[in-house]
Write a structure and sequence with these properties.
Blueprint lengths: L2 E5 L2 E4 L4 E8 L7 E7 L6 E6 L6 E3 L7 E6 L4 E6 L8 E8 L8 E2 L3 E6 L1
Parallel strand pairs: 2-11
Antiparallel strand pairs: 1-3, 3-8, 4-5, 4-9, 5-6, 7-8, 9-10, 9-11
Length: about 120
Amino acid sequence: QVQLVESGGGLVQAGGSLRLSCAFSGRTFSWYAMGWFRQAPGKEREFVATISMNGGNTYYTDSVKGRFTISRDNAKNTVYLQMNSLKPEDPAVYYCAARSPLDSDFSSWGQGTQVTVSS
């Protein structure tokens, strides 16, 4: 089964940058679309970004467009989320997720990594 392990979270000043990584194992990485989601305290988990199996297509929620970039390295079985110009509304636990071609939704999730932004 798919295992996902996120890393790269931490504390950063507003306007700063962080790069999250998610290591994928257990299946063939290039068969899976990948996504990043986040959940802030007291809020529901929300979609952040997704990338297609070959990396050719990406999609972002409006609030991060132009600031965040999702990418993947199929040789390293890793998906990344480069976060620039971090804002006070960005802090959350960020989760990596995987969706197989057989699934209509993301079915595998990592444990999450905390992102904190200081003003």
